[in-house]
Amino acid sequence: MPVSLVLTADTHVPRRARDLPAALWAAIDAADVVVHAGDWVDVALLDRFEERARRLVAVHGNNDHGALRERLPEVARAEIEGIRLAVVHETGDRTGREARCAARFPDTDLLVFGHSHIPWDTTAATGLRLLNPGSPTDRRRQPSCTYLTAVADGGVLRDVTLHPVAR
């Protein structure tokens, strides 16, 4: 049965924005699974995600401390509709990322990561798909703030869509 996913990271609420964009909250409310690749900044946002998401797979980032590090792992793993998922905040430099991540996550089909605020969608030679949803609150040098949606269906990730959002 198809499972709808929302992928986000680097939310930085309330430092970069007072709240998430309404479009992202609507997507979270509608999704079967929400994935957050770290840099929440405030545990209150984690509480809100836990209240609203049907299922949350999440990690802490380099800007997360205290209760966020106590409640969230550095690496999270889940199997979703036959897809072996791993989530981590940082993957290091873009050069060699695919090979480095394939070696670190050999039994993984999909790796969701954050940190750079730059959307990323590549596949390693091993078949590992790497996705970074960007940031919904801090676009840095990107044209817009972003998040991703996708569908997990029978071991296949399909309909991967990058959504630009107004802040």
Automatic annotation (TrEMBL):
Q: Does the keyword Metal-binding apply?
A: yes
Q: Which GO terms describe its molecular function?
A: hydrolase activity; metal ion binding
Q: According to its UniProt record, which cofactors does this protein need?
A: a divalent metal cation
Q: Which InterPro entries match?
A: Calcineurin-like_PHP_lpxH, Metallo-depent_PP-like, Phosphodiesterase_MJ0936/Vps29
Q: Which Pfam families match?
A: Metallophos_2 (PF12850)
Q: Which residues form the Calcineurin-like phosphoesterase domain?
A: 5-150
Q: What UniProt keywords apply to this chain's record, in alphabetical order?
A: Metal-binding
EC code: 3.1.4.-
Q: What class of enzyme is it?
A: hydrolase
Domain of life of the native organism: Bacteria
Question: Which PANTHER family does the annotation name?
Answer: VACUOLAR SORTING PROTEIN VPS29
Family, according to the entry, reads as follows:
Belongs to the metallophosphoesterase superfamily. YfcE family.
Name of protein: Phosphoesterase
The species this protein belongs to is Geodermatophilus pulveris
